[in-house]
Amino acid sequence: MEPAWREQPGHIRPDCQESGPSRAGSLSRPAGPRRVLCAVGPLARVGYCNCGAMFSKGERLACGCVAPNVASDSAVIYRVLFNVVLRRLPVEVAHRLAATSTRAICRVPVIAAILRRFVVAQDRALRVEALGLSFPSPLGAAAGLDKNGTWFESLGLLGFGFVEVGTVTATPQRGNPMPRVFRLTGDRALLNKMGFPNDGVDAVSDRLERRSGRLIVGVNVGKGASTPIESAAADYRAVIKRAAGLCDYLVVNVSSPNTPGLQTMQAVDLLRPLLIDIQKELRKAKPNLPLLLKIGPDTPNHQIDAVADLALELSLAGIVAVNTTEDRGILSRPEDVAHVIGGGISGPPLRARAIEVLERLYARVEDRLVLVSVGGVSDAEDAWERIIAGATLVQAHAGFIYGGPGWPHQINRGLARRVQEAGAASIQDVIGSKSPGTSRNAFGLRPTAQDVPADGAVSLST
Ligand SMILES: Cc1cc2nc3c(=O)[nH]c(=O)nc-3n(C[C@H](O)[C@H](O)[C@H](O)COP(=O)(O)O)c2cc1C
User: How far is the CA of 332 from the centre of ligand 1 (A)?
Assistant: First the structure.
């Protein structure tokens, strides 16, 4: 019988309670019989458990302990930058500043070379074969981070295994009036009602034409704000016709809450003709290009099932779930944005529903569709949880905004460690391994928070 443990940051296994010498040089070891994990200094990358295992922020140790939520040096620097500079700026100004400076830094050849060598995922444990592509990491940049295809290569250098550019529309549009993105820092969430501001498919395609690296890039396609639902198919077709030859996959976005009427197209009787129309265009433009559909969290469960069935019927490549939610009840302080009419919420409050939708989809389609889980991924454990629940790929937006440039690399390292601990060869081997349909705890997976009974202790009998 293994000792009881809890999957909580900073919680340690009883068998690590004997004190040992601190091997961490300048790091101090807190006193007290139960607090056996060493503290980590503000700029220190690692600490040590008393059993000798090394840890960094939030990581699980081979001994079974969970490192405390202390930050790595880059995360601390970004947090200071975020609190002192970025947070004081309007969100979109901060975003533009971050994108422009990251792009400029990544253009310096020596920096790009360093990032390519040390940050871009190369660990075979992270590799995922899906959509006919070889993803170096299952972690992707979600739509909205690079709406215009201006910095996807920099996002790749920061460790994202793929980037979804867009949402792109047939013609340029300004989106809704500003301010239209709001921080909810207490929840590490965002509320946005951008309404697909973008340069239009021609400008975005010109940039994609100039792409040099091998980074996997998808294009997320939407309809124009002023296009009536009845003519939406023409909008999608125009984008696909121009951009299909320039990207690795396409996503049909019918789930943004910020474009009037868009979500009504998630109803199967509207969605079927739209997708058939799009597929016809795609057969002409680039027949084997994977086509995915992005759905929203506010879609009722019966409709999610119907959409999954339709995706199978039409042989789509996959589903991206989920977009932002209009449900403000998930916020800890909804009153902070009471003055904002409309918009969708991203970040950790969305996590529970994103997992619920993923589990529902996986139960229905298993590995017949590629499931891309997005919504509330904020650390490696979140990403891991999505993968073992059936996601082949994972995306994030808010997690990166709050986590900063070191965040994708941190998630990759945490995921690689998780693969190793599970005794698997790669991420590919553990996809869906926790779903009720498959044998639970295959690869020695540890129970997650939901598995922990009220008293918090779990016995792992052998
Ligand atoms: C500011 C902002 C802009 C976004 N723009 C788009 C978009 O253009 N197209 C889209 O499909 N999703 C868009 N999203 C939604 C994200 O791609 C993602 O589905 C959602 O934020 C949930 O993920 P997260 O919790 O990791 O942020 C946007 C999200 C934010 C916060």
Answer: 20
